[in-house]
């Protein structure tokens, strides 16, 4: 079986429409603000042990540094290529949830008042921003479906 260049999936009308829908969804001021806040949240999570002062808790410090960098990388790529990376918004939600529970889960005695409050608040914000970014693509799909029905 041979494939012809004209039968490539890249030129399918539904794919082109989906790409334009994701482009519209991520170019709104709300999506751009969500991405910017998510990047700031990731930077805070990574730097929080030194900002709040629990950098002597090595396991939580390393955990926050890795999670913060990963969160920034995930959420930073969403605006430029949302059609290929929107699943990472759900992974970013998982990182936010992990940040919340990390003081109780990582090894060692790292659950101090400062580390708990910092991780719970930053993790909740990260989780909400991930949910907002994940919902931005489906919100655009709902609008397109309603517009076609009319």
Task: Provide structural commentary.
Helix 2 packs antiparallel against helix 3 (58-76) and helix 3 (58-76) packs parallel to helix 6. The radius of gyration is 19 Å and the shape is elongated. It has 6 helices and no strands. It has helices spanning 13-26, 29-53, 58-76, 82-85, 87-105, 113-149. The chain is mostly helical.
Question: How would you sum up this structure in a few lines?
Answer:
The protein has six helices and no strands.
Key words describing this protein structure:
0% strand; mainly alpha; disordered C terminus; 150 residues; 79% helix
Question: Mind sketching the topology for me?
Answer:
Blueprint: H1 13-26, H2 29-53, H3 58-76, H4 82-85, H5 87-105, H6 113-149
Helix pairs in contact: 1-6, 2-3, 2-6, 3-5, 3-6, 5-6
Main β-sheet: number of strands, strand sense, barrel status?
none
Estimate the strand proportion: under 5%
Average of pLDDT: 79
Rg, rounded, reads 19 Å
What is the distance, rounded to the nearest whole angstrom, between the alpha carbons of the first and last residues?
41 Å
Computed structural class:
mainly alpha
Share of helix, binned: over 70%
Assembly state of the chains shown: single chain
Count of runs of 4 or more consecutive helical residues: 6
Shape: elongated
List how many beta strands DSSP finds.
0
Low-pLDDT stretches: 140-150
**SSE order, one letter for each helix or strand:** HHHHHH
């Amino acid at each position: 079986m041979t494939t012809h260049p004209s039968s490539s999936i890249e030129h399918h009308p539904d794919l082109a429409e989906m790409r334009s829908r994701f482009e519209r969804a991520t170019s709104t001021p709300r999506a751009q603000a969500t991405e910017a806040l998510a990047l700031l949240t990731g930077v805070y999570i990574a730097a929080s042990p030194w900002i709040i002062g629990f950098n002597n808790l090595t396991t939580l410090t390393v955990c926050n540094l890795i999670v913060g960098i990963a969160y920034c990388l995930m959420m930073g790529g969403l605006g430029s290529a949302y059609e290929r990376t929107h699943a990472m918004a759900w992974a970013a939600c998982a990182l936010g949830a992990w940040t919340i529970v990390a003081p109780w889960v990582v090894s060692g005695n790292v659950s101090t008042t400062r580390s708990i409050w910092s991780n719970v608040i930053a993790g909740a914000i990260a989780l909400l921003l991930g949910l907002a970014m994940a919902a931005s693509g489906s919100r655009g799909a709902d609008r397109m479906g309603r517009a076609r029905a009319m």
